[in-house]
Amino acid sequence: MAGKTTFLKSISICIYLAHLGMAVPAESMKLQVFDGLFTSIDTKDNLAAGYSYFYSEVKRVKQVAERLKNNEKIFVVFDELFRGTNIKDAFDCSSLVIEGFKNSTSNSNFIISSHIIELQNQIDFNKVFFMHFKGDLYNQKLMFDYTIKSGVSDQRLGLIILKSEGIEELFKNGNF
Fold first, then answer.
1. Cα-based distances in Å from 31 to 24, 35, 40, 44, 159
2. In terms of C-beta distances under 8 Å and separation of at least 24 residues, what long-range contacts does 146-151 make, across chains too?
3. How far apart are CA 123 and CA 149, in angstroms?
4. How far apart are CA 12 and CA 37, in angstroms?
5. Cα 124 from chain centroid (whole Å)
6. CATH 1.10.150.130 fits 4-128, yes or no
7. Which region, left, alpha or beta, applies to residue 29 given φ > 0 means left and ψ of -120 to 50 means alpha?
8. Which of 29, 41, 52, 74 has the most CB atoms less than 10 A away?
9. For residues 52 and 45, is the Cβ–Cβ distance under 8 A?
10. Could you give phi then psi for residue 111, rounded to 5 degrees?
């Protein structure tokens, strides 16, 4: 709702267009040349290959790690890293991967989104920046300013959004 995934897609598209030598939809842009662009924004399961959503994401992380091991300079965008598993595994896997990316010597860049706020206590801030979008309630309506802010968001908006759609009332008054 705050525009996080749209923001990540926009960054990825701008990097891709710039590498093609095309104009980007920005007032200005400074960018180094990368050997590759990896995104995991719309990861899907693969029933034919027998891959769950989570396993597909693990395979994508492995591809990135292999490219980093080859000292390639890549730009990586992961949206909601490891959302396809339970919260404990998602936390542990995210911690391991983020620390691995952070320690890469390939001069690559990474943008990783997560709703696991506990990661802020696990990850050393050296070379890692936490940022978020913020929403506010105005007249019982959720509004966003689409401005990136530093730090980790402490907002809990999911239940507010669910209730604003009248779902709680449907369950109270509905005959299912």
1. 11, 13, 21, 29, 39
2. 146/2, 146/3, 148/7
3. 19
4. 8
5. 18
6. no
7. beta
8. 74
9. yes
10. -125, 120
Structure tokens at 3: 């525009």
CB proximity list for 113: less than 8 A, separation 6 or greater: 4, 5, 8, 78, 79, 80, 81
CB 42 within 8 A of CB 57: no
Place of tokens 């997560």: 114
CA Rg value for the chain: 19
Separation of alpha carbons 10 and 29, rounded Å: 13
Tokens standing for residue 88? 């404990």
Domain spans in the chain, listed from the N-terminal domain onward:
4-128
Predicted model pTM: 0.82
**pLDDT, mean of each 10-residue run, the chain (176 residues):** 82 94 92 92 77 87 95 94 90 93 90 88 79 81 84 82 85 74
